[in-house]
Each structure stands twice: as C-alpha cells, then as structure tokens.
Protein: Alpha/beta-hydrolase
Organism: Apodospora peruviana
Amino acid sequence: MQDSGRHARQHGSHSGSTLAIAMMLPLLLATTTPVNAASSLRDWKEPIILDRSGGFQIGGTIIHNPNNTNQTLSCDHGYMEYFIPWTPRQTSLVMWHSSSTQVWQNRWDGGQGYKDMFLRRGYPVYLWDGPRVGRANWSCRPITYIPQYRDQGNFAAWNFGPSFMNWWPDVQFPTKDPNAWQQATSARYDEFDTYENVLLHAHAAAVAADSGKVGDHIVYLTNSAGGLRAQLTAIRSNTTNIKGIVTYESIGYVYPAGLNITQDSFGGFGPIVVPLDEFKKLAKVKAIQFVWGDHRPRSDKYVQQSLLCAALINQYGGNAEVLMLGDDAGLIGSTHIPFADLDNDKVAKLLDGFLAKNGLGGYTGHWWDFLVSGIQ
Ligand SMILES: *[C@@H]1O[C@H](CO)[C@@H](O)[C@H](O)[C@H]1NC(C)=O
Ligand SMILES: *[C@@H]1O[C@H](CO)[C@@H](O)[C@H](O)[C@H]1NC(C)=O
Ligand SMILES: *[C@@H]1O[C@H](CO)[C@@H](O)[C@H](O)[C@H]1NC(C)=O
Ligand SMILES: *[C@@H]1O[C@H](CO)[C@@H](O)[C@H](O)[C@H]1NC(C)=O
Ligand SMILES: *[C@@H]1O[C@H](CO)[C@@H](O)[C@H](O)[C@H]1NC(C)=O
C-alpha cells in the first residue's frame, strides 16, 4: 500500500489509483474468499438496509371472567412482524403462511428466502401470524394440544413426493440432506383448519389492513390455507388498502351466492359462499394471481376451483389469473411451498413481473430515492 501511494504521487493520481485498485483486487479476493473467487462474485448480494423493524398485535378482543367481570383476557389478536427498508417501495408484502413463518424466511436448504429477497428489492415485508397460531398464542377459547403424528402427512401435503420419503425425481428440495427435511417438518406450528378459524383470521387481518399500520398498498403473499383467508380478508376490509393477492397453492376459494355452490361451514378449506355484492370486492382488488406448481395437475379439485374463482372475478370486472409454474413458466419440480424451493429465485422473478405489470412495484418518495436505492 505504501508503494502504490508513492507511485500515485509521482505519476498523477489517476493512473495511481487505477494501479492501486488493480493491486488491491487480487488481495481482496485472496483474503475474503475462502472458496473460489468466481463463485463468491456470483453470490454477491446487495446489503439489506433497514430503516426499522418491529412487531405489533392487532385485532382481537377482550373477554371478561364470568365469575369476576373485573378480570379480563386480551385474546384472539394476530401478530405482525415488520421490516421496513431504508428506501421503501410503496407496496407492503404481507407474507401469510399456513404452516409457519419459517417458510418465508429461508429456502429449504437454508439459503435466501422471500423475506430477504424482497427486502433487498426494497419492499416493506410483514410476517403475519393469525390468531391462535405462532406468536399470536392467546386464544379466547380453550385449546387442547394433542400430538397428531403429522410428519408423514406433511411430506405428502407439501408435495415433496407422492408418499413419505418417495421424492419426486425432479423436486426442488435438497433431498440428500436429512437435516433439511427435519428443519422443514419441525418448523410447523399447531394450526386450526376450521371454518371458525378462517373467519377469525380474516377479521383480524382486515382490521390490520384497515388500520394503516401495514401501509395503503398491501399485497398478500399466501401459502396453502392462507389463500382462502386472504380472499375473505379483502371482502371484509372496509378500505381500499388491499391492492393485490398472490396465492401459492391456495387450498380454498370464495364464491358468490346464486351459483349452487355449497359452502363448507366446518372445515378450513372452503368453499365459502358470500353475497354477490361482497364477492365483487375481489374484483376491486387491482390484481390477483393463483399460482400452482407443476406437480399439481390441472384436473386437481383446487386448481379447478381457482380457475372458476378467477373467471368469476374477471366476469365482474376484476383482474385475476391462474399461473401454472410448469406449463406457463417452465419451472419444474415445484413443491406446495414454491417460494422456499431451490429455484425460488425464478419464482420470485415471476412475482417481480406480476408486481411491475400491475403498477405495484414503484417507490413512494422522491425521484432521487430510486437512484439512492440502486436500480433493481
Ligand atoms: C367460575 O366458577 C365456577 C364455579 O366455581 C368454576 O367451575 C369455573 O371454572 C369458574 N370459571 C372461571 C373462568 O374461573
Ligand atoms: C370489581 O371492581 C369494582 C370497582 O373497582 C369493585 O367494586 C368490585 O368489588 C370488584 N369485584 C370483584 C369481584 O372483585
Ligand atoms: C399456546 O402455547 C401453549 C404453551 O405452549 C399451548 O399449550 C397452547 O396450546 C398454545 N395455544 C394455541 C392457541 O396454540
Ligand atoms: C367493516 O364495517 C362493518 C360495518 O360497519 C363492520 O361490521 C366490520 O366489522 C368492519 N370490518 C372491519 C375489518 O373492521
Ligand atoms: C344444485 O346442486 C345439487 C347438488 O350439488 C344438485 O342436486 C341440484 O340439481 C343443483 N341444482 C341446480 C339448479 O343446478
């Protein structure tokens, strides 16, 4: 370093600094990369710069002890954790799990999940635990936890393969790593797939959406049973804050009355039937996309339901589509949770396209914010 400094003074700063950089580059690579330089350059990521992060409880109710009405319990609220980039885009991405928030935090192999990917892109990210799951644990109703021996069921339900440990040959999961499977199945929360719980979650989420605490440009990203709850949330909300819904393998749909569709008022997977006026609120949402992986045939009951739901939303002037990751985008081996798959960068690019196409990718602030944050 001493030598290159002296050289710069003798021969002018321009050539000197060029030489200094040329000399430093191999040094930097040698000292900061234990593996090889090429792969480390490929893995280079922009830093995540946050303005703030935190969390809050929202929705819920206060019940009184019938034996002593002075005693209360604050319960059935949801819990929202948030991460706000230093230079945020306008759209808030609310990541709504069905199994646990972990699915949004990391890829199956521990690599970058949707949370970090979209923070790097400048989107405010919200991780939502609906009432009675995860960190929104205080239930207004008695809860009995009974161990259900779910591991084998998780494997098939998440479409890692047709049966336990019988992987799809092309599956986007690190099948050789037993720790990855262990991580996936043990992250799961106890959950309540009942009609009552769908209503409870939709109400708490609608209160959150209407509160302004999640911004006024909300896009829900949902997985599995979260999709039905988000559809109902858009119907229950009294503001126009909800701008978009992207469901990954939504199990359950909302339909308008008058179509001879029978509501299931017990389970957590629909169908839910609402008056036509209410259904039309889904047509007011700027953009809705129902996404399916390639291991879900078009004949699947829920794929069929999503096609009908999208067609009805569009019939009332809305903007809904079904995206088949295999047929439409050429992605193979997707699981039920494609945003955690090994090719989740490709799944994320499709979301970039959806947000941009529907005018949901912009910045709120001044034009120079865009320059400061870097062009994505
Ligand atoms: C109210 O009192 C009854 C009778 O003592 C008792 O069985 C019940 O558990 C009490 N309820 C609560 C919420 O404390
Ligand atoms: C409830 O609070 C009121 C007002 O402080 C008090 O008069 C009453 O005795 C309390 N009741 C019980 C059961 O503690
Ligand atoms: C909350 O946590 C407690 C303690 O782990 C557990 O017994 C209870 O079932 C949980 N509540 C819900 C709603 O899952
Ligand atoms: C929306 O307004 C209706 C009518 O006032 C009310 O019953 C409902 O609870 C409101 N929804 C939310 C999420 O606050
Ligand atoms: C409505 O559905 C029921 C059962 O799904 C069927 O038996 C009935 O014929 C249907 N009615 C009409 C008008 O389509």
